[in-house]
Amino acid sequence: MKRIFTLLIVIVPLLTGCWSRQEVNDVAIVLGVALDKEKKCKQN
Questions:
Q1: What average pLDDT score do residues 23-36 get?
Q2: Judging by beta carbons within 10 Å of its beta carbon (0-12, 13-18, 19+), is residue 38 exposed, middle or buried?
Q3: Which end of the chain, N or C, is more open, meaning fewer C-beta atoms within 10 Å of its C-beta?
Q4: What's the superkingdom here (predicted)?
């Protein structure tokens, strides 16, 4: 029984297929981020 359960745990992820896959062209990938340091200013 334990062997069958283990076998199912291993096989089930392999049977799911690619129904939720996303194409590389459809995914937004961040290539870079830039931050500007603001100069400290005196507030009155």
A1: 84
A2: exposed
A3: C
A4: Bacteria
Model confidence band, residue 30 (pLDDT cutoffs 50, 70, 90)? confident
Candidates 4, 7, 23; CA nearest to 15 is: 7
> CA torsion, points 25, 30, 31, 36, in degrees to nearest 10?
150
Instruction: Give dist(CA 3, CA 35) in Å, integer.
Output: 55
